[in-house]
Amino acid sequence: MAKQQNPIPIPMPLSLSLPLVLVALLLPAARGAAETPQYTTVHAESDFEVRLYGDTVWMSAPTPDIPSFHVATKLGFHRLFQYLMGANLNSSRIRMTTPVLTSVVPGAGPLRSSAYSVRLYLPAKFQASPPVPLPELNLHPDRWPGHCVAARSFSGRARDKNVVEEAEKLAMSLSRSPWANSTDYSSKSAYSVAQYSSPFRIIGRVNEEHVDLKYHISVKNSLRYAIQEMRRQSSLLRTINGLCCSIPEVEGGKVGKLAGHLKEVCKGLEKTSSICQEDLENKCPGWDLHNPPSDVEDNSHPSDVEDAMDGYVSEDPELWQMVFDDLQWEENKVAVSLAEHCRIMGYDYDQMFDRTI
Fold first, then answer.
1. Up-side HSE of residue 19: CA atoms within 13 Å toward CB?
2. Disulfide: which of 49, 107, 116, 256 matches 251 by Cβ 3.0-4.6 Å?
3. End-to-end CA distance of the chain, in Å?
4. How far apart, in whole angstroms, are the C-alpha atoms of residue 41 and residue 18?
5. 154: closest CA among 117, 207, 215?
6. ∠ at Cα 150 (145, 156), nearest 5°?
7. What percent of the chain has pLDDT over 70?
């Protein structure tokens, strides 16, 4: 009987087998184990959240001729992985980051079908100056300015069918939320799928659907206006407070108590305005907070109060009652501005501002 020979193993091409093995070693098993773009959650629902990202740089692999999300992601990532392994003009080895982001680009494929672009976030050390990829890889850096996205998490493997289903669920959730009209239709992609897990991980896989929102524009304008309005009110209250304190005859009476009361209001406003501006600058790098939105006009001049008085201080109790009523109206307006600002930023109004008012 002839001796049975063991079949000769046929090796996979190195270009395909090696990346899969190395990806298993390099891609973290859990989200958070690798460098990832930072963001601030500005709102959270039960099935999605709204995030604000700062400026970021990604390396992008366009795949315009591939009609399948799954195939496009594999082929695009293969080119990106070669780039990480040193296929760049600097021969730099770049650490793996997360997520692998596949964006659906409407009308960019054959016969205006959907196409895909696969991206990897570049580590912080390469954000300012990414290594230039070798020309044959057909990669290019994508510089994304600060932007907002709605993100929905889902588990399992991201495949052609379920990524569409998850996108539809996110669209439905958005349509029932305050962000129903905030989808950024000027975005280059209809939606993106972020994958955080190694391809060899079976249980506990982490994926997300991302949809770009225009909400960051309204956040920016709303917060600018809130800060501007609080400063204006604080200045106005300081001016009227000075007028109140200039009347010694009523210093211990109703107006005098109001003057001390307004000092506390001004202190609280200054503290809150400072905290809000610092927080906004950290969350929205590159935004000029000193130039208000073009649609916000401030025609009020606190000095007008002094000019109208023309240096004369009346002791007419009816006039001071009118001043007192005006101050209460201004104080309520300040409180509304402050409460709205805290709501937008996700702060607890009562904890943020010691309510001595």
1. 18
2. 256
3. 101
4. 37
5. 207
6. 115
7. 48
Q: How far apart are CA 99 and CA 206, in angstroms?
A: 10
Going by C-alpha positions, the residue among 155, 194, 198, 156 that lies closest to residue 27 is 198
The Cα-based distances of 134 to 91, 93, 275 in angstroms read 10, 13, 46
> What pTM does this model have?
0.59
- Here the tokens at position 129 are 């100056």
**Sheet of 49-53, strands arranged across:** 39-44, 49-53, 147-154, 207-213, 191-195, 100-105, 115-121, 56-63, 140-144
pLDDT of residue 301: 40
- Tokens describing residue 71: 């195939």
Instruction: Give me the pLDDT at residue 318, please.
Output: 60
Q: Specify whether the CB–CB gap between 276 and 289 falls below 8 A.
A: no
With a cut of 50, say whether residue 6 has pLDDT above it.
no
Q: Which two tokens stand for residue 56?
A: 């970021």
- Give the number of other Cβ atoms within 10 Å of residue 183's Cβ: 19
191: closest CA among 215, 166, 158, 216? Answer: 166
Copy the structure tokens of residue 165.
Answer: 């289903």
pLDDT at site 213: 87
